[in-house]
C-alpha cells in the first residue's frame, strides 16, 4: 500500500494502481474516453488528465501509477480547462447529430459533454475529415463521422485475435478501417461485434433489422414466430434501467406478445435439442473412433474463426446446428406440420445477444424446410429499441410464460448463455445416457466462472473424460494451436467466441467503460442464468418432454436420419 493525497485528502491505496483506479476507490470518477480496462490502456485521448504536484505537465491518470507521497489534483481550473478543450476539439470534427443517434443516452462523449458543461459545440468549427462509412457486412455499420479515434474497437478486435481494423492515414486524415481501406466484408472479420460494444459513441452500431420485423408483423399474410436466446433475459432489463444481472424472462415474453408476435418460443428448447444431438455425436465419436476432441459449434463467430484460421480443425467441430438454427428448423418443419401451417407463411425471428447470428442465418445448409431456418435475427439492443418504439412500459409489464411446444425447456439449456454452460449441459446428458441412471448431482462447478480457459477431468461411464472450455478468441486461438500441434488431448472442447460467453455477446446492452472496467458484468449476467437453472424442476435436456415429442415425429432417437437432415450442418474448409 502507498499513501497519497487526492485533492488534499489522505488515502492509503494499493501500490501499483493507477491514479484513475486510486481515485475511483476514493469515490472520484476521473473522466475517460479511450480507456477500457485490460483491453485499451493507452493514455491517448487525454480526457483523464490530472495535476500531480511536482510534475512538469498534466498527466494521464489511466496509465500513471501512484507512488508514496504523491499529491494529485483532479478538479483544478487547469484540469477543467484541459478536459473542456479536449471535448471541444473532438466535437469540431464530430457530426453531432445526437437526436437521431442510436447511442444517444448511452454515448460516453455525449455524457462527458453534459458533465463538463460544454456550452458551445462549434467552438473550433472548421475542416472535417472524410468520415467514411462502411455498411458492407451483415452485422455492423461503421460511421467514422462519429468516431473519436479512441482505438477501443481496434483493441477489442486484437483481443479477439482477429485484428482486421486499425488506423489508416496519419494526422488530420487518420481514420479507423481495414488495411488498404477495404470494406469489412472483404476481410476475415468473424462478426463477433465486440468492437461495437467497445465503441464509446455511435461510430459502430449493429445492422438494424427492426423495421423488417415490424413489416412482417404488420403483414396479415404472415405468421411471425419469435425465439429468444438464453442470454437475452439476463441483460435486456439493463436497457430499462434495471440492475445488471436481473432476469427479465417473464416481462420479455410479455413485451414480445404485445409487440404482435404470433408465437413466443424459447431458443432454450433448441438448446435442449442441441444437447441431444451433440451428446449423441460425442458418444458415437468415442465409441467408433471419430474425430476428437469434438468442439462445440453453436457460436457462429467462433465457427467463422475456425473456418478462417483453423480450417483443418473444422472436422472436429460438432456437425450440430446452433440452438437458434435448430429451433428455426423445427419451427418450419415439425411445428408447422403439427399446426397445419404453410411454412412459407412463417417469418421466423430470433432475438440474440449476438450479431454474428445475423450472419449465421445466411449460411449454407441452414434451411431444413427448403426455406431459411431463421429469416431475421435481431440483437438484445434491437429488441429494446422495438419495445421503446412501441412505448411499452417495460418495468410495469406482467410476467408471462413462453408459448407451449417450443417454450418448454430445461435448466441445462438456460446455462448455454454462460461460458461452460454448453459443456455442463452436454455432460449432464452424456453421463445419464451412458450410465443409464438419473444422476442427482447435475452441477459441474469446475467449468463454471468467467475465466477465459478452464479444464477438468470427469469420470463418465468408467472413462476419464478430459474437457476444456474457452471463451474469447485469443484463448480459443491458444488452445486450437495446441490441439493442431497434437499437444492437447481433450475429448470435448467448448468454445464461445465472446469473452465470458453469450452473456457478453456483441448484441447485448452496452455498458460504459466506467461500469464495465470495474464490474464483472459477465459474472452478474451469468449468475442470473445459473440461478434460473437451479430453480427449474427439469435440469437435463433429455428430460424435456417436448424433445421426445419431436423425436417421435422424426421417427427415431437422437442422431437418427431425419435428425441429421434437419438439425445438422456443414462447414467450409
Ligand atoms: Fe448463445 Fe446459443 S448460447 S450461441 O451464446 O448455443 O447468441 O444466449 O442463443 O444458438 O441456446 C447466442 C446465447 C444462443 C444458440 C443457445
Ligand atoms: Fe473484429 Fe469482431 Fe469487430 Fe469483426 S466484429 S471487426 S472480428 S471485433
Q: What would you note in describing this structure?
A:
It is built from 19 helices and 18 strands. It is of the alpha/beta class. The protein folds into three domains: 57 residues, Ubiquitin-like (UB roll), CATH 3.10.20; 116 residues, Alpha-Beta Plaits, CATH 3.30.70.20; 357 residues, 3-Layer(aba) Sandwich (Rossmann fold). The strands form five sheets. Strands 2-1-5-3-4 form a five-stranded mixed beta sheet, sandwiched between helices. Strands 12-11-14-15 form a four-stranded parallel beta sheet, with helices on both faces. The structure holds 2 iron/2 sulfur/5 carbonyl/2 water inorganic cluster and iron/sulfur cluster. Iron/sulfur cluster binds next to helix 4 and helix 5. This is (2Fe-2S)-binding protein.
Please tag this protein with its features.
single chain, binds iron/sulfur cluster, four-stranded parallel sheet, 4Fe-4S, alpha/beta, 18 strands, (2Fe-2S)-binding protein, HndD, Rossmann fold, metal-binding, Alpha-Beta Plaits, Ubiquitin-like (UB roll)
Q: What's the pLDDT, averaged over the residues?
A: 97
Distance between the termini: 54 Å
Small molecules (ligands, ions, cofactors) in the structure: 2 iron/2 sulfur/5 carbonyl/2 water inorganic cluster, iron/sulfur cluster
Structural class: alpha/beta
Low-confidence stretches: none
Question: How many domains make up the coordinates?
Answer: 3
Number of helices: 19
Shape: globular
Describe the largest sheet: 5 strands, mixed
Strand content: 5-15%
The whole-angstrom Rg is 25 Å
Q: Helix proportion of residues, in percent?
A: 25-40%
CATH topology of the largest domain: Rossmann fold
For the biggest β-sheet, the strand order reads 2-1-5-3-4
Number of strands: 18
Amino acid at each position: 500500500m502507498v499513501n497519497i493525497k487526492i485533492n488534499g485528502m489522505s488515502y492509503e491505496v494499493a501500490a501499483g494502481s493507477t491514479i484513475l483506479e486510486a481515485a475511483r476507490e476514493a469515490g472520484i470518477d476521473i473522466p475517460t474516453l479511450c480507456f477500457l480496462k485490460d483491453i485499451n490502456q493507452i493514455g491517448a485521448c487525454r480526457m483523464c488528465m490530472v495535476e500531480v504536484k511536482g510534475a512538469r505537465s498534466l498527466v494521464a491518470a489511466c496509465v500513471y501509477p501512484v507512488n508514496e507521497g504523491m499529491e494529485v489534483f483532479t478538479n483544478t481550473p487547469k484540469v477543467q480547462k484541459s478536459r473542456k478543450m479536449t471535448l471541444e476539439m473532438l466535437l469540431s470534427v464530430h457530426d453531432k447529430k445526437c437526436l437521431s443517434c442510436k447511442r444517444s443516452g448511452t454515448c460516453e462523449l455525449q455524457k462527458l459533454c453534459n458533465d463538463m458543461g460544454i456550452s458551445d459545440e462549434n467552438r473550433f468549427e472548421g475542416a472535417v475529415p472524410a468520415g467514411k462509412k462502411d455498411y458492407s457486412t451483415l452485422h455492423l455499420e461503421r460511421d467514422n463521422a462519429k468516431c473519436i479515434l479512441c482505438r477501443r474497437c481496434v483493441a477489442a478486435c486484437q483481443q479477439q485475435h482477429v485484428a482486421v481494423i486499425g488506423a489508416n492515414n496519419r494526422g488530420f486524415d487518420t481514420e479507423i478501417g481495414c488495411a488498404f481501406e477495404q470494406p469489412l466484408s472483404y476481410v476475415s472479420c468473424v462478426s463477433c461485434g465486440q468492437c461495437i460494444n467497445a465503441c464509446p459513441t455511435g461510430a459502430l452500431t449493429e445492422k438494424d433489422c427492426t423495421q423488417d420485423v415490424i413489416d412482417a408483423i404488420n403483414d396479415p399474410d404472415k405468421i411471425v414466430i419469435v425465439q429468444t436466446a438464453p442470454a437475452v433475459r439476463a441483460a435486456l432489463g439493463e436497457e430499462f434501467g434495471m440492475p445488471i444481472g436481473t432476469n427479465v424472462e417473464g416481462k420479455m415474453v410479455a413485451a414480445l406478445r404485445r409487440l404482435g408476435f404470433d408465437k413466443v418460443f424459447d431458443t432454450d428448447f433448441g438448446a435442449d435439442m442441441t444437447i441431444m444431438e451433440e451428446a449423441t455425436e460425442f458418444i458415437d465419436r468415442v465409441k467408433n473412433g471419430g474425430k476428437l476432441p469434438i468442439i462445440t459449434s453453436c457460436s457462429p463467430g467462433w465457427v467463422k474463426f475456425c473456418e478462417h484460421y483453423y480450417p483443418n480443425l473444422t472436422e472436429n467441430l460438432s456437425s450440430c446446428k446452433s440452438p437458434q438454427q435448430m429451433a428455426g428448423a423445427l419451427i418450419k418443419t415439425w411445428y408447422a406440420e403439427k399446426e397445419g401451417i404453410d411454412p412459407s407463411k412463417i417469418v421466423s425471428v430470433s432475438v440474440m445477444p449476438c450479431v454474428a447470428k445475423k450472419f449465421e442465418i445466411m449460411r449454407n445448409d441452414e434451411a431444413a424446410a427448403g426455406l431459411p431456418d431463421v429469416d431475421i435475427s435481431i440483437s438484445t439492443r434491437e429488441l429494446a429499441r422495438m419495445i421503446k418504439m412501441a412505448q411499452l412500459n417495460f418495468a410495469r409489464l406482467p410476467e408471462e410464460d413462453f408459448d407451449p411446444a417450443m417454450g418448454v425447456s430445461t435448466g441445462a439449456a438456460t446455462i448455454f448463455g454462460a461460458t461452460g454452460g454448453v459443456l455442463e449441459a452436454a455432460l449432464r446428458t452424456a453421463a445419464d445416457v451412458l450410465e443409464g441412471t438419473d444422476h442427482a448431482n447435475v452441477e459441474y462447478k469446475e467449468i463454471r466462472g468467467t475465466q477465459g480457459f478452464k479444464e477438468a477431468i470427469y469420470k463418465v461411464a468408467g472413462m476419464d473424460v478430459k474437457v476444456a472450455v474457452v471463451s474469447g478468441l485469443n484463448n480459443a486461438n491458444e488452445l486450437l494451436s495446441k490441439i493442431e500441434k497434437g499437444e492437447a488431448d481433450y475429448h470435448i472442447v467448448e468454445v464461445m467466441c465472446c469473452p465470458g460467453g453469450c452473456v457478453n455477446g456483441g448484441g447485448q446492452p452496452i455498458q460504459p467503460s466506467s461500469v464495465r472496467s470495474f464490474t464483472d458484468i459477465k459474472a452478474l449476467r451469468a449468475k442470473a442464468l445459473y440461478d434460473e437453472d437451479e430453480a427449474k424442476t427439469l435440469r437435463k435436456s433429455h428430460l424435456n418432454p417436448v424433445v421426445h415429442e419431436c423425436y417421435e415425429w422424426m421417427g427415431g432417437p437422437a442422431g437418427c436420419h431425419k435428425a441429421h437432415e434437419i438439425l445438422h450442418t456443414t462447414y467450409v474448409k
